[in-house]
Design a protein that fits this description.
about 475 residues, alpha+beta, four-stranded antiparallel β-sheet, three-stranded antiparallel β-sheet, 11 helices, 11 strands, about 60% helix, about 10% strand, elongated
Length: about 475
């Protein structure tokens, strides 16, 4: 080996050591950066001697990333479903809470018993009216909360569709830039990091599969079979409404569905084209969970109104007259059940806040003047109507007859069971997502390993410097001869 070749080899070694230290420094600096792929510098022996830099490779595990994205979509979906059911359960309350729906029903029932023993006591009749109003108010509040959640879900759908479209467009642009970078022989690693981070964000909205294409490009498909990106970006359209009401549904055409490239696609939780992530959860809240909860509340409100509008309970009522509870002042109409829980009111005839008189609880809704203050028969009828077991004519409460309190217990138990199952699914999804994320972090930048590599690079750098110093000494010796 000549002195010049030794010097040349040492210089290539220095350059390789410098490039390697840059790569290691970048790895350590981005140890916690989402989407960052560990860089490895490829080195080999040059044909004419020395070290050749073959380029930078990006180390990732595509299978692990794909599993993590699907787990994140499931986690996002379970989070939204659990949030809705938890808020609904909190509104209605649990049986052990005094201000729960069951607790207010108990207060109403007890107030009727107390008024039966002292029908002449105005304060006891007032307590009955207050307890009935409180119970009706909570049912109305629950209905309003359901519709507010559906309205929020509708707005979230619009926001997430906009975000999804923008992110897909950005991925398309990165595809183009990556292809250009690879064609020119430059390093596309930074662009690949950005694309991976973008696709990770998309995967929380819609569960997807990434398919490699030529020249570093990728295509994206939802697990429901929709083509989101394959060369061009899918045109996803959705029209939001200002406020969702109980009368609005996707089946009736009052609420918008999704179209992809102009074709309508299913949005249900079972077979929706974009179901499974946070976007699918919003559709489920708006069109399935919300409508189911509204239907159950309406069925209970109907049962409550019908119990007291029977002339057999209150002889002052005529057929078609409203009883103690009303549909905004009217009797129940079987053709107008949808949304009745949002319209449930205490009859104005007994409500002082609406100009009524509580003594009509004792003497009858249509009574024009107070009657015998010691006559508790009508109050007893009201109490019996509340506790009489009757089969609900709507809703999904199972087979059997229920008192009003039992019907509430069934309603709250159903919601509690649904919330419990949702929390179990959320716990599993969270554990799975966290585990896969930890695996990705473990397969990512290992700071200890990178520091060990850096020590080896320093040793290689020092060895090459020694070689240069030795070559310099030899050349100096030759020049002195």
């Amino acid at each position: 080996m000549t002195i010049s070749s030794a010097l040349s080899n040492a210089m290539t070694g220095l350059r390789a050591a410098g490039r390697t230290s840059e790569v290691i420094s970048a790895n350590i600096a981005n140890a916690m950066t989402p989407g960052y792929g560990v860089r490895d510098l490829g080195l080999s022996s040059a044909m004419l001697g020395g070290v050749a830099v073959d380029g930078i490779s990006r180390r990732v595990d595509p299978s692990l990333i794909a599993d993590m994205r699907l787990a994140e979509a499931t986690f996002s979906n379970a989070t939204e479903r659990t949030r809705f059911l938890t808020e609904l359960e909190n509104t209605l309350g649990t049986p052990d809470e005094p201000n729960s729906l069951l607790g207010r029903m108990s207060d109403f029932e007890n107030s009727l018993i107390a008024a039966t023993s002292r029908p002449d006591a105005p304060e006891r009749l007032q307590i009955v009216a207050d307890a009935a109003r409180d119970m009706a108010s909570l049912i109305t509040q629950a209905s309003d909360d359901v519709q507010r959640a559906r309205s929020d879900a509708d707005r979230q759908i619009r926001n997430q569709v906009d975000q999804l479209t923008a992110s897909l467009e950005n991925v398309k642009q990165l595809n183009t830039q990556i292809t250009k970078t690879i064609t020119t022989g430059a390093d596309p690693s930074a662009l690949l990091d950005n694309r991976q981070a973008l696709i990770d964000e998309i995967s929380s909205i819609v569960p997807l599969r990434q398919v490699p294409r030529d020249n570093g490009q990728v295509a994206l498909y939802s697990t429901g079979g929709a083509i989101l990106l394959d060369g061009g970006v899918a045109e996803i359209e959705f029209s939001a409404v200002n406020q969702v009401t109980p009368y609005m549904s996707i089946e009736g055409g009052e609420l918008s569905g999704l179209t992809i490239n102009g074709y309508p696609v299913r949005t249900d939780s079972d077979r929706g084209a974009l179901s499974g992530g946070s976007l699918g959860a919003q559709f489920e809240i708006r069109d399935e969970l919300g409508t189911s909860a509204q239907s159950q509340l309406d069925a209970f409100a109907r049962d409550l109104i019908e119990r007291f509008q029977d002339p057999a309970v209150d002889p002052t009522l005529l057929p078609g007259d409203a009883g103690l509870f009303t549909d905004e002042g009217m009797a129940f109409d079987p053709l107008d059940e949808v949304g009745i829980s949002s319209r449930l009111q205490l009859n104005a005839a007994v409500d002082e806040r609406q100009g009524g008189e509580p003594w009509r609880i004792r003497d009858g809704i249509n009574a024009v003047a107070p009657g015998d203050v010691g006559d508790a028969r009508l109050i007893q009828n009201l109490s019996d109507a509340l506790t009489t077991a009757r089969a609900p004519l709507s809703g999904d409460f199972g087979i059997g007859a229920f008192s009003a309190a039992n019907l509430i217990s069934t309603l709250t138990s159903q919601i509690g069971a649904d919330r419990y199952q949702a929390e179990k699914s959320l716990t599993f999804a969270s554990s799975q997502f966290d585990e896969l994320r930890q695996q990705i972090l473990a397969d990512g930048v290992d700071s200890d390993e990178e520091l060990q590599r850096l020590l080896i690079v320093e040793q290689a750098y020092a060895a090459n410097v020694k070689m240069i110093e030795a070559a310099d000494e030899m050349m100096q010796t030759i020049l002195r001869i």
